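Technical appendix A lists one of the benchmark inputs used to test multi-chain prediction within the project. The record comprises two sequence entries:
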Amino acid sequence: MEKLECVFCAKSFPLDIFFPFCPECGEPLLVSRTKKQRSFRTDKKLAVEIFGDFLPLERIEPGLTLGEGDTPLLELGRLASLDKMPFTLTKNETVNPTSSFKDRGSVVAVQKAVSLGIKTIGTISTGNMAGSTAAYAAKAGLKSVILVKEDTTKEKILAAGIYGPILVKVKGDYGRLFRKSFEIGRRHGIYFMNSVDPFRIEGYKVTGYEIFLQLGARSPEYVFAPVSAGGHLIGLMRAFLDLRDEGLIRKIPVFVGVQAKGCSPLVRAFSSGKTSFTRFSNPRTIAHAISNPNPPGGNIVLKMLRENKGMLIAVSDAEIIKAQKLLAEREGIFCDPASATVLAGLCQLAQKTSFKPRDRIVLVITGSGLKTIEDLDIARIDYHEAAIDGLEKMLDSVLR
Amino acid sequence: MEKLECVFCAKSFPLDIFFPFCPECGEPLLVSRTKKQRSFRTDKKLAVEIFGDFLPLERIEPGLTLGEGDTPLLELGRLASLDKMPFTLTKNETVNPTSSFKDRGSVVAVQKAVSLGIKTIGTISTGNMAGSTAAYAAKAGLKSVILVKEDTTKEKILAAGIYGPILVKVKGDYGRLFRKSFEIGRRHGIYFMNSVDPFRIEGYKVTGYEIFLQLGARSPEYVFAPVSAGGHLIGLMRAFLDLRDEGLIRKIPVFVGVQAKGCSPLVRAFSSGKTSFTRFSNPRTIAHAISNPNPPGGNIVLKMLRENKGMLIAVSDAEIIKAQKLLAEREGIFCDPASATVLAGLCQLAQKTSFKPRDRIVLVITGSGLKTIEDLDIARIDYHEAAIDGLEKMLDSVLR
């Protein structure tokens, strides 16, 4: 059985799947390294099999996968000509079975659930995690309990509800619900694989290993990722720390966590040199998927970024909206506002920092724009109307 | 330069990119086989590179790809226990950059457009093709002209419009617009890569080759695919005909084209033994993506299915809705109603046909449910409401 460790107390604890938090300081626990010998099984097909040595699973059950991972790493083509833009690639996590990076975590956490004989899993989510958890539960034949906010839109209810979970709109404070979910989980045998679940975080490492291999077994110089609860960035960083431990790279990339200005508790703490953040009052941003005023993994993020010369930056909604449109119009990638923060962050940083000509920048695009289509303003889209007989004249004037 | 051929007149013609139809009978032309030596380049990464020998492209430009293809082939896990269900796999084309199979065709047609020096591409679409064509045009730096129906929903306008095409809502008959688009295209240098574009169809072949390799260099016994304009099914069949020509398989799978009962012009023609179909009056089905009353590739589909012992079947909207829910609830795949026809068709056929125990069935899932979320009835989704303090009691009663 795995041990979990607290990065603050530097102690390890036996796995308690129903409450993976430090009994001493309350911070989230992470999985301790277990396997001595680790290598990439590049002869395998599934991402979780190729990188299985680096995951805390005794064995991989292929019947529990939806074919997640192995996502494209694409060079910015047309955006490369923007002012001061360094050599940049996107890691497109929207091309996952439920259209977000969450599937990377769900597949590992669900494998763990099944191996432990758990019959019901759960999560708290405003969107992407709801659909991902419900879909993997469906594939595995597990029940799932999906707790969403009171004001969750009909579209988001449908996108998760289609998988047949026990879906509950919950009224009340989400920090309180986060803690409460674990109490209920323990009493009812529900494994709540929430945002900073240690196995979920291990799953996110796979994205990092893929980037390394896709670059020809090299590390990029910078990795930009949106930061909400913190789990995703923690996983991505752990991937490169693993690669360094294995002697495969010398130094880890500079990680740049990006938050929306309207909800940036970690940027505020980091820029004032604090080791712990405080709750962000009145969050307000179009990037709903990362609008977490009280991120449970926040203090780990602050610690890891400080120890590894990372950065945290905030971008405005106007910058986000502009970046979302640029990614679609120039690169053919339609992402959600939360993902667009990474391009907004790069544009911002490029004005202040001199990237070296050989620097390789990776932007992790986390979720599909199709899931946030109700946030898109139709006024931002140009369209015309014509009858068949008037079409040619109309096109003629537009194409000139 | 490629030659195009008419499968009815058995003649070939030089490529006319602005009107790829037979000058004699008016049917769509297909690409003639050009390369003598063909093999799979499994050392390559991109699907269009691996299967490049089988595509009518002089060279592949990696900068024009969005990382399409290499989609999961997954065994039905929990649905396998349904009554009389044979061994079945899904080929999940929703995991493509713009969430549908159209990307397979767009990448090849756009490569061709760029190689011919074309600056503007176009398409007529009600949904998936609009987004796919606009996205690949954006990546390639081409202008795109996207013609959509007058009553296209705001969501669909947004999902295509985000890529910055010249988007036009056109009022009038779509059969007429289809023909008109080519006239306008020729005069204005716009390559209209519509549903049965010969290069688009070549791109769909890649899905077939992938299925073959994913099954361990073997052919499945049956392939089910939704049928609308016909291009997709023609491409899938051509893939297995190629494999047979190469001596890699002995016989091609039984292809089962599935249409919605409410718009089934090809099923009607096929079941009455006709070699050509007639327009379907008053189409009405929830499967909008395949609601084409006058499919331009229809007669080729009829001919190819007849020559290769294929089938065409129709399923009702009730069967479609049930199948869509089953795929989500049991297999974790959220597809659109058009895709769900394939499971509905298999369930229908399984009641009449005795599949052999060793038969392998592949269902091609063509588009994501996220794009048709407005067609989902919230009444079909169970959800609950609770305050935090009442949550445990509520869950207790549901979980019992």
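The longest strand of chain A covers residues 143-149. Chain A has a mean pLDDT of 96. Comparable benchmark entries are summarised in Table A2.
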